[in-house]
Input
Amino acid sequence: MNIRAFLGILICRGVKLAAKLLHRGGTAMPGRFAVKVCPDLAAILSKDVRVIMVTGTNGKTTTSRIIEQGLIDSGADYFANRSGANLLSGVTTTLVENSTLFGKAKHKCAVIECDEAAFKTVAPLVQPEVILVTNLFRDQLDRYGEITHTLANIREGILGVPKATVCLNADCSLTASLAGDIPNKCLFYGLGEALGGGEAPAVSDASHCIRCKARYTYQYRTYGHLGHFVCPECGYERPETQLTVTKLLSRDTDSSTVTMEAQGVSRAVRVNLPAVYNIYNAAGAALALTAFGMEPSAAMQCGENFQCGFGRMERFDLNGTAIRMILVKNPAGCDQVIEYLTGLDTAYLPVFLLNDNPADSTDISWIWDADYERFAAGYRGETVVSGIRADEMALRLKYAGIPADQITVEREFDALLQRVSAQDKPVFIIPTYTAMLDIRTRLAHLCGTKEFWE
Output
C-alpha cells in the first residue's frame, strides 16, 4: 500500500471519529476527504474482497438488505454500506471502516449499494463479482437527466468490470437492454404473471422500444413499464429468466407469499414486506445470491426474515401508535405506495412529507405524474402534509380530489409527531429522502431506535 492510501485511511478515520464525537453520522464526509488524498483508495481496499454491488432506480436498499440476510444465513464473513451512503465517498468510508490501518480487508465479502449516477465511477474501482441492476425509472431529472443518460452511466460502469456476472430485471425493457451492449455473463429475473393488476400507467418511462422506437405491446404488466414487453416491429422482447416468480399464493398488508423457480428448484417463499415491488426486490436478491454461489433453494428464502432498510416500510411504535414509514422519490415508486395504501382494509392516517433539497430533487413536478387521484378515490378522512414544500403537496392532493378541509398542513416535524403520537389508528408516513432522514432521526430518538448509520 502506498503512502497516499495510508494517509487517506488516517484522514478518513480521523474525520469519522470527529463526526462521532459531534453525534453526526459521518457516512460520506470522511470518504470525501480520503478520496481527495487518494482517488483510487476504494480500489486498493476492495481488491481482496468478493463484492455484490446493487444499483438501479428503485429497490437498492431493500434488495441489499435481503442479500445481506442471505450472507448471514450462509455464515459468510461480510460487511455492507448499510447507511445508504452510496456515492464514491460513502463507499470509501465503508471500505476504510472495514479495513485495517494498513489497508488489509477485515472481511471476505461485501454488499455495496451504489447510486446509479456514481456507478460508472465506483464499479470499475471496486470490481464487484456480481452486479444487480434492479430497474430504471425517471428520477431526479435535475441530477440524473433523462433516463437514457442513467442507462448509459450504468452501461459504462459494467463495461469497466467485464468479468462480473450481471443480474438484470427482465421485466424492465431498459434494464434488460443492457445485455446486448456488454460482454459480461448476464442472468435475468422477473415475474411470470401480472400479480399487481397490471394497469397501464398514465405516464410511462419506457413506452417505446429502445431499439427501434415502435410502441411496445404487453402480454402482461406488473407496474409502471415493467412486464412482458414485446416490440411488434423489431422483435425485442422480455428475455427468458433464470429465476422466475411464477405465482402469487397470498398477500396481506405486511407480506406476500409467492412461488419462485430457479435451476429446476421451485419453492413457496414469504416476502416479509408487502407490495409487488418488494417481490421484485426479493427475486433480484435471490438471483444475485445464486450467482454468488448460494444454492437456489437457500437464496430464495432470504426474503423471509431480512431486516428492513431504514425508511423502507420501516416500523415504529410511538407511545402505542403503530407507524410505518415508506420512502417515495419518483412517480413509479409513489404509485406503488398508493396501490398499497388503497388496498388497506383498516382506518389509518396518511402523512405526506415533501422536500426539495438536492438529495430529493429540486424539481418536484413529478408529484403531478403520480396517481394521487387513485388515492383520493379510495380514501376518506384527514390527510396530513408537511415538509419544505407542504403547500405544493396540499395543492396536489386538493386537485386529486381530497377536500381542502380534510387536508392539514403541519409545518414543524416536532408538532407533527405530537399529532401522530395521539392517534388511535395506524399512521403511514410517506416522505421524500431528506424528509425521511429528518423525521426518522426524531422518531429514532423518541422510540429508542438506532440511527440509520448504526
User: Anything to note?
Assistant: The mean pLDDT is 90. The longest strand covers residues 243-251. The chain has 16 helices and 17 strands.
